[in-house]
Automatic annotation (TrEMBL):
One protein family per Pfam: Cytochrom_C
Sequence ranges assigned to domain Cytochrome c in this UniProt record: 23-108, 116-207
Source organism: Shewanella morhuae
Domain of life: Bacteria
Official protein name in the record: Cytochrome c4
Length: 207
């Protein structure tokens, strides 16, 4: 709860801070040819191990690209190391990152039709599990899974279930640690494989 309170303070600080630099979506469209091989020309990846970038908050995309680039520059000591993305982000300028993020953010995400949505996924997302100290996911990511851009919380609605599952597992095993104040690591370490599977499938169907 302390970390959640901290996150809320970040929102307040962001609201009162100077305007965030914006990219040019049209310029970004000319810079995403390499990105499209995995993420699609419109940010709707057809490969479920790679995230959909369409409709994601521009500032979140910027942070991830900066973190990937930082990891490449420091040999993984800082940022977010990924064998593919760190190499892709390495040559990007700050303006490239702004423009690419603006482009993907401006696109519309395509959400798969709901099939079997695990009841457990909805339960954990909306209410958490007090007995295990699991905070409801919607406290940060919102009731509709759209996140909170000013606080740095990404939109999760409609994301590939496989990708969400991979990232939650990485957070749980501390294979990924570029989250705000370790919040996602704290939550993920309390989740079982079944919890992660249910949450991932539930989020993939949110529109």
């Amino acid at each position: 709860m302390k970390k959640l309170a901290l996150a809320l303070s970040v929102v307040i600080a962001a609201i009162s801070s100077p305007a965030i630099a914006e990219g040019n979506a049209e310029a970004g469209k000319t810079k995403i040819i390499v990105c499209s091989a995995c993420h699609g020309m419109d940010g709707n990846s057809m490969i479920d191990m790679y995230p959909k970038l369409a409709g994601q908050h521009a500032t979140y995309l910027q942070k991830q690209l900066h973190d990937f680039r930082s990891a490449a520059q420091t040999g993984g000591k800082d940022g977010r190391m990924d064998p593919i993305m760190s190499g892709m982000a390495m040559p990007l300028s700050d303006q490239d990152i702004l423009d690419i993020s603006a482009y993907f953010s401006s696109q519309a995400i395509q959400v798969a039709e709901a099939k079997d949505v695990p009841e457990l996924g909805a339960k954990l997302y909306k209410g958490g599990d007090v007995s295990r100290g699991i905070t409801a996911c919607m406290a940060c990511h919102g009731p509709d899974g759209k996140g909170a851009e000013l606080a740095g919380f990404p939109t999760l609605a409609g994301q590939h279930a496989s990708y969400i599952k991979i990232q939650l597992t990485k957070f749980r095993e501390v294979g990924r640690h570029n989250d705000l104040n370790g919040m996602m690591q704290d939550v993920a370490k309390k989740l079982s494989d079944n919890d992660i599977d249910a949450l991932s499938k539930y989020l993939s169907t949110l529109k």
